[in-house]
Amino acid sequence: MILANNITLSYDNKKNIIENANFNIKAKDFIFISGSSGSGKSTLLKAFYGELYIKSGHLLVNKTDLSKKNYNKLLTLRKDLGIVFQDYKLIKDYTIEDNIMLPLKVHNYDDTVCKTQVKKLLKHVKLSHKVGAYPEELSGGEQQRVAVARALAHNPSVIFADEPTGNLDDYSSDVIWKLLKNANEILGITVVVVTHRIPQDLGIKYRRFNIDEGVVYEAS
Amino acid sequence: MKLLKSFISFTFPLIIMLFIFSIYLLVDKVVNSYKHSIANDYAIVVITNTPFITIDEIADMPIKDIEQLSRTKIIEGIKDNLSHSSLELLNKKLPYFYKIHLEEFPTTLKLEQIRKELKQMTNIKRIETFSSDHNQIYSLLILIQDIVFILFMVVLALSLLLLSKQIKIWFFEHNERISIIQLHGGSLLYSSKPILKTILLSAVVSSAIVISLLIIVVNNISLFVQPEILTIMPKVIHLEFEIFQIFVLSFVIPLITFFGLLIQYKSK
User: Where residue A189 sits, what CATH number does that domain have?
Assistant: First the structure.
């Protein structure tokens, strides 16, 4: 699923954020990437979805070699990913249905399929009563549920979540963790979450990678 | 309101550019029609001792027709004043008269070349070009045609600048949306669809305005030009091809600008 071989990451070739990292993430794994603020957790995640090119080494995500710059291959890879951000990254002038529909539209699904899937997902994230609303009309927790629904819409093989509960209260955080856990357990989606706070009672078997001073290691 | 303002900022230079282009097309059509009509009316007369050899072109200008003036008609006109013996002598000595019709009306420079080339032919006695009457108006029209073309090129350059500036602003405004769509695997073209839609709408609106204006001007041409100018204009101006050209240009210019900036944006 994800194979990192001696990868080094840096912004604009300045100081290395991650150095010579080696790890392997298998399909259906639930992964936490933790570390202190500024340790490079989000940087590593950005490399997974091609927002940041690696400086050296080899990185394979879903058999796509991200050490080679190829815009079209990157877009093809991203079509098979679900991404959840701390700041939700919802399109403000789209309704929540249109936001959830986005990956389906990118895949060229027809309108009927899109509408059915959106209806199902809105019910799944308990936002059916918010049909027609715009992101700004929702609370932070609700917006993040929309973002998770969008990440699940096209049944991706992997979901990357960057501090998905970072801006949320305890109740909303629990809802998001439950949604990610179900995605992994029920749908068999690989989930990679960057967080500085791993929930105690998640009730799922997971692997944890820690980043300390640019070194990535798997914590027991 | 903001949307309307940015739409107008894009559409306005496009309308100005198309309007100048339509003026250029109109002037070009009128000048070409005038060129054609004076070329039809115009002929160089040559007087030769022996029958003229048929030639296809002279001074690189294609010859439309060489018409021999009837000698009998010339003699008929003056025979009443001549004695029988003089008439016989005239019949023997009268040279051959030819009218050379050209495909195009020649410029002064070309006319000089034609005169030189004709003079080199040994059997030619005299050449008459009768060009001075037409030449001034013709040169003036060519000048107007050139000025309008230069004006169009300047306006085109300025419009391209303004259009690209507005498209850049739209890319900046849609930057967040574009990056979110790209994060979900949407191509840059897909994520810029709203910009492309606005550009296409603007092209339709601009071409509709300019084509309507052009049709109004052409149908009421007497209100816009001096009566003297009307005499040199074609009686009926058919604009089908010009309308098609304006319509195509209204799409081509903004789309070239858009795709140029799209490539620039992609390479970033």
Answer: 3.40.50.300
